[in-house]
Write a structure and sequence with these properties.
By secondary structure, the chain is an alpha/beta fold. The chain is built from 16 helices and 17 strands. It folds into two domains: 279 residues, 3-Layer(aba) Sandwich (UDP-N-acetylmuramoyl-L-alanine:D-glutamate ligase); 138 residues, Mur ligase, C-terminal domain (Protein-Tyrosine Phosphatase, Chain A), CATH 3.90.190. The strands form three sheets. An eight-stranded mixed beta sheet has the order 4-3-2-5-1-6-7-8, with helices on both faces. Strands 12-13-17-14-15-16 form a six-stranded mixed beta sheet, sandwiched between helices. It has a three-stranded antiparallel beta sheet with strand order 9-10-11, covered by helices on one side.
């Protein structure tokens, strides 16, 4: 499938600049100034950083806001199939024409911007030129030096769970990584914080106190938990009794609670209980522990009485949540847990496999369409954790191997690349 907007951004600004980018926002600020500073002409912005759960949390917030009748813009990263997915303008995915026009306007000012800088500038242009009630803005990487952090006065900041990822750019420890994430905090803007490792929470609390950002912490100012098949979200002044999320996994209880807390924190929004209930139950986010139940890819597994799931999680923290979810499923329904794993070259394969191994009986390593860790290396890591492992030359071959297990529970995971391949094959 052709991705016209991505092709045009690449032609104008080169390949998307990810790891190794110089942490310098001066060039982007200068370009935005020439464009009339659209980032200063937006509706209230909720700025989201963290290691895992950002996309799911934004999906819940979007669903809640729309259930309340609010019109919203959203910028998220990465995408599954096309660049357009990153840009939601007044509730609708931006079309190629609008994105290409924005890219060309930006290139006429400075074609030496990184592609991600240009994407962020394009989002601000589109958002500033279309009325809405709210902007949901996800960081690309880190926070302090991220392209999205040219927002000077957000309505609130959200910090999802912090874990080890992008250590080459953000630092080797949770303390160093948390310092980058804490960079999105702004004076007088509430900061809504998910449950964190103690060393990460200490960094966030210190930064909030330093600049005067009111704290709204999980376990202190708010809490969320499952009780009797319901999601309960509590603050000191309000309690919500909600249906469980449609998204699967215990970690989605935490993400849904964080999304609710974002609208319960002091700020410009006062939403009715019904909006929270409708949003939590209706939120969808592709390739986040998503079951595949009706297509051609899952057919052989279903024929064996098994299940097929897909998740784009790619770091140790995500693998930990996936292993927990797989163990919960196995405790309820039995069956063998089989993971088909593909990992990008830059990822910490040892950490990912160490965690996913806690929830699987067998691992099948598969290649990706782009630079990836050799399946042989992934299989070797699995065997170090006493998990049987095999390699496959393609996703299709991996599926054939998985179908040899009786009534298997198969999880395709490790990268959004393999997740997208699976979703495309399921609907082919």
């Amino acid at each position: 499938m052709r991705d016209a907007a991505r092709e045009r951004f690449e032609a104008l600004f080169g390949p998307e600049f990810g790891h190794g980018k110089a942490f310098d926002l001066a060039r982007l600020r200068a370009a935005l100034s020439t464009l009339g500073n659209p980032q200063n002409k937006l509706p209230p912005v909720i700025h989201v950083a963290g290691t895992n759960g950002k996309g799911s949390t934004i999906a819940f917030m979007r669903a809640i806001a729309e259930a309340a009748g609010l019109s919203l813009h959203a910028f998220t990263k990465p995408h599954l199939f096309s660049l357009n997915e990153r840009f939601v303008v007044a509730g609708k995915t931006a079309n190629d024409a609008a994105l290409i026009d924005a890219a060309e306007r930006i290139a006429r000012i400075d074609s030496a911007l990184t592609q991600f800088d240009a994407q962020v500038a394009a989002a601000f242009l589109l958002f500033a030129e279309t009325p809405a009630d709210l902007v949901l803005l996800e960081t690309g990487m880190g926070g302090r030096d991220d392209s999205t952090n040219v927002i000077a006065a957000p309505a609130a900041a959200i910090i999802t769970p912090i874990g080890l990822d992008h250590q080459d750019a953000l630092g080797a420890t949770l303390t160093e990584i948390a310092a980058h994430k804490a960079g999105i905090l702004k004076p007088n803007a509430p900061v809504v914080i998910a449950c964190q490792p103690p060393e990460a929470m200490a960094v966030l609390e210190a930064r909030a106190e330093e600049i005067g950002a009111p704290l709204f912490r999980c376990g202190v100012e708010w809490d969320a938990f499952e009780s009797k098949g319901r999601l309960v979200v509590q603050t000191e002044t309000r309690a919500l009794d909600l249906p469980l999320p449609a998204l699967h996994g215990a970690h989605q209880i935490d993400n849904a609670g964080l999304a609710c807390a974002a609208f319960l924190a002091p700020g410009p929004f006062n939403l009715a209980d019904d909006a929270f209930a409708d949003g939590v139950s209706r939120a969808r986010w592709a390739a986040r522990l998503q079951p595949l139940t009706r297509g051609s890819l899952s057919a052989p597994i279903r024929a064996m009485g098994g299940e097929l799931w897909v998740d784009g999680g790619h770091n140790a923290h995500a693998a930990q949540a996936l292993a927990r979810a797989l163990n919960d499923m196995k405790a309820r329904r039995g069956g063998a847990n089989v993971a088909i794993v593909g990992l990008r070259q830059r990822k910490d394969a040892a950490a990912f496999i160490a965690e996913i191994a806690r929830g699987v009986d067998h691992i099948i390593a598969a290649p990706l369409a782009e630079a990836h860790i050799a399946p042989e290396d992934i299989a070797a890591l699995a065997r170090k954790h006493d998990v049987s492992a095999a390699i496959a030359p393609t996703l299709g071959a991996a599926m054939q191997s998985a179908a040899q297990f009786p009534a298997p529970r198969v999880l395709i995971c490790g990268s959004l690349l393999i997740a997208a391949e699976a979703l495309a094959a399921e609907t082919a």
